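Let us work through a complete example step by step.
Step 1: write down the sequence.
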Amino acid sequence: MTIAITGGTGFVGQALIDRALDQGVPVRALARKEQEPRDGVEWIAGDLADGKALMRLVAGVAAVVHVAGVMTAHDSAGFEAGNVAGTLAMIEAALAAGVRRFVCVSSLAAREPELSAYGASKARAERLVEASALDWTIVRPPAVYGPRDRDMFELFRAARWGLVPVPREGRASLIHVEDLARLLLAVVPGGEGVSHRIFEPDDGRSGGWAHDELARAIGRAVGRRPRVVGLSKRMMEWAARADGMMRGPRARLTLDRVGYMTHPDWVAGSHSRVPAVLWRPRVETLAGLEATARWYRQAGWL
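Step 2: predict the structure and record it as tokens.
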């Protein structure tokens, strides 16, 4: 049973490929750049705008797991191209190839599309999937952390420096990338209770994490007791402008991200839980944060 994966060279995609190979599942993955050969993986050169590459990607596969997406862009057009047009292209390729099963990785940000261009694009992508003739499942991960991640790494680095700025109010759920990868593979077969469902997984912590609470947990993971500073939306907007001036296109904090980061409720919904018989989180978050910090040190990031 070969599965086609988009975003296979990214943070979540790499974890998904690792997990698939561990389970003996062959993978065909899309990549914009040439990749090192790997047993069990057939790399397809191209991107989401390359129709011929997409047809090579999905030909004869049992399912598509659409992970690729744009999290940071300078304008709404960037999100539209990466998240909406890219999803539509994958839907059309799957239908043309006769592939029925389609797993789409979205985001909790899709719940509140008015807050950001990113969330709006994810919501539009979800509607395309839901309106298609595919046998679909949508997974909305909360904040994802683990080895190779560069977004949550910003918090680890700040904690190492001893000062962690966070939104002043609100709570958010977390999930380790290995748990997310297990879930994506678990839903690939589809079936009753899985097909035509939207799932919001998390680490099993009821009510999620307060932002300051998570910052202190990350501090413990890196062996520090950082000062945690709660920022208002206006202060975070100022910080985003400063980050843009200093790092330009490499900036991780953007005004669009501030739009959804300052929303008070990014806790996975209890009404959208994955059936326990299918999947449960295995990575306890404090231990997962410590293991992630070790990976960052070993990789020379910290």
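Step 3: interpret the result. The chain has ten helices and 14 strands.
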